[in-house]
Amino acid sequence: MTVEILSPDFTIFKGTASIITLPGKKGSFQVLENHAPIISILNKGKITFKSNENPTSFNEGFIKKEASVNSLDIVSGTVEVSNNTVSILVELT
């Protein structure tokens, strides 16, 4: 699925991922390919996602990479999932 993580000032990540874990308002949840459409508020926590491809846009100053798992600490945000596209708007720590 296509993933785009944006802050108010710049693109943090744009590429593909096979699984994303997000810090939802009522607890962490995962998004996989062909997930039902959803819009959710994100709490302070960590976004993790598995990506085996080189992203088209990648801000290394914010993303921590261990093997094929990437993580990003956030203060808050929102996520929209639709048609295998995940758009995440975040406020960074």
Report mean pLDDT, rounded to a whole number. Answer: 89
Q: Give the strand content.
A: over 45%
Taking the sheet with the most strands, its summary is: 10 strands, mixed
Annotation, overall tally of beta strands:
10
CATH topology: ATP Synthase, domain 1
- The end-to-end distance, rounded to whole angstroms, is 26 Å
Enumerate how many helices there are, as a single number.
0
Annotation keywords:
93 residues, mainly beta, ATP Synthase, domain 1, ten-stranded mixed β-sheet
What does this structure look like?
- This protein is mainly β and 93 residues long.
- The chain has one domain (2-92): Sandwich (ATP Synthase, domain 1).
- Helix content is 0%, strand content 66%.
- The chain is built from no helices and 10 strands.
- The chain has strands spanning 2-6, 11-16, 19-24, 27-32, 38-42, 45-50, 57-58, 64-66, 69-82, 85-92.
- Strands 1, 2, 3, 4, 5, 6, 7, 8, 9 and 10 form a 10-stranded mixed β-sheet that branches.
- Strand 8 and strand 9 form a beta hairpin.
- It is globular and about 30 Å long.
- 24% of the residues are buried.
- The model has no long low-confidence stretch (mean pLDDT 89).
